[in-house]
Amino acid sequence: MIDRELLDLAARAAARAHSPYSGVRVGAALRAPDGRVFTGCNVENASYGLTICAERVAVTKAISEGVARFVAAAVWSSTPRPFTPCGACRQFLSEFARELPISLGCSGGAEEEAELSALLPRAFHFDR
Length: 128
Ligand code: THU
Fold this sequence. Notes:
Layout: H1 4-14, E1 26-31, E2 37-41, H2 54-64, E3 72-77, H3 87-94, E4 101-106, E5 111-115, H4 116-119
Parallel strand pairs: 3-4
Antiparallel strand pairs: 1-2, 1-3, 4-5
């Protein structure tokens, strides 16, 4: 089921993107077990490789506030079809949520649901 509230917050975060190079605005929202929501947007750089995706911005904001578990996520992109999290973001999210329902939306209007464990099967975890 699409998490309407989380997807709306992701869309609002996308409006704050710094993406003059791709022109694509992406927003992400993560729901913590206590209900708090952490958002992020993509932050590009003139040195293109330094770009940070919206998902990783949201995760690092949460971690730095002491929240390291998530129960749901949403990603919204200013594209005709929804973006799914890139490979790096799948791995980054997987560190903190092995199972994570992700609501996807876009300016084109299409919506989809995805499950992180299906997007990243056999994820790498350093279990010691
Ligand atoms: N982007 C994200 O923010 N999240 C993703 O999962 C895929 C890509 C951003 C990075 C870049 O600023 C723009 O989308 C185009 O790749």
